[in-house]
Amino acid sequence: MLRAATQGSLPTHSLRDLDRDEGAALHNHLFEEQMEWTEPQPLEMPPELEIPPRGGESQERAAQEEREQTALVASYASAAQIPDSPAEPPTQIPDEQVDADVRVMLAGEDVEGLFWEGGAPAPTLADGAHTASSVADLVGQLA
Q1: Which H or E run includes 141?
Q2: What is the pTM of this model?
Q3: Residue 104 in contact with residue 123, Cβ under 8 Å?
Q4: CA-CA distance, 135 to 111, in Å (whole number)?
Q5: What are the DSSP calls for 29-55, one per residue?
Q6: Residue 56 burial class via C-beta count within 10 angstroms: exposed 0-12, middle 13-18, buried 19 and up
Q7: Sign of the dihedral defined by the CA atoms of residues 118, 120, 126, 129, in that order
Q8: By the 8 A CB rule, do 12 and 6 touch?
Q9: Where are the alpha helices (DSSP H) in the chain?
Q10: Which string of b and e fits 7-37 if b means at least 16 CB within 10 Å?
């Protein structure tokens, strides 16, 4: 059973649905076996045989090693933080809630003209109270 959603006149398929459908087809025995499965014979390599490392003479080896050193890695503190799939989350934050908890921090009246066009925004907190203009007061708000 292939699920397809239509978007305009072209059908679109979810990769997750395609994976599920492929697995379902294998479990439903839609295909006949052409030969019986046998376990492969173990392969024993003689100890005197020298096998060079894979990619030892490759021109791309150094480039790949450099890429791996600079690539970002996802780190998780616990297994509960690992997402179920690498896809985007099924729900997204509504536009009204995107900046709901943002605190505006100002650098001071003498430099605000460098950062804001048309004047600095009103220095207020979420509860409507005015912020202090000194750096020490701003750092104190972070604690």
Answers
A1: helix 135-142
A2: 0.23
A3: yes
A4: 13
A5: T-S--SS---PPPP----TT---PPTT
A6: exposed
A7: negative
A8: yes
A9: 15-27, 61-70, 95-98, 112-115, 135-142
A10: eeeeeeeeeeeeeeeeeeeeeeeeeeeeeee
Tens of pLDDT along the chain (143 residues)?
Answer: 445 555 555 566 788 888 888 888 777 776 677 888 899 999 888 888 888 888 778 888 888 888 888 887 888 888 888 888 877 776 777 888 888 888 877 777 777 767 766 655 555 555 555 554 567 777 777 86
Residue written as tokens 């109270």? Answer: 129
The amino acid at 79: A
Tokens of 11: 């059908």
Residue type, 68: E
Question: Which residue carries 């650098």 as its tokens?
Answer: 107
